[in-house]
Amino acid sequence: MERLLLTAQEAAQALGVSRTKVYDLMRSGRLRSVKIGGSRRIPVDALAELVDELAEAS
Fold first, then answer.
1. Residues 6+ away with beta carbon under 8 Å from 33
2. pLDDT digits over 3-57, tens only?
3. Which domain holds residue 33?
4. Number of domains the chain is built from
5. Locate the Helix-turn-helix domain: which residues (predicted)?
């Protein structure tokens, strides 16, 4: 089964940025995330949405 949610570290690796940058993107609302208990997780499709948004802005 394919994973649907990623940790900030996993999302950072997938995007090629730092974990701090992922948290900045989540805080600014540019990267969608969900809260599960005390943890934040990033839906895999939210990464594609962010990349699409960045590509359109270029």
1. 26, 40, 41, 42, 43, 46
2. 999 999 999 999 999 999 999 999 999 999 999 999 999 999 999 999 999 999 8
3. 5-57
4. 1
5. 5-53
Q: What is the pLDDT of residue 58?
A: 81
Phi and psi for 2 in degrees, rounded to 5?
Answer: -80, 140
Nearest to 10 by CA among 47, 54, 51: 47
Strand bridging mode 34-36 / 39-43: antiparallel
Say how far apart CA 54 and CA 15 lie, in whole Å.
12
Residue 1, pLDDT score: 87
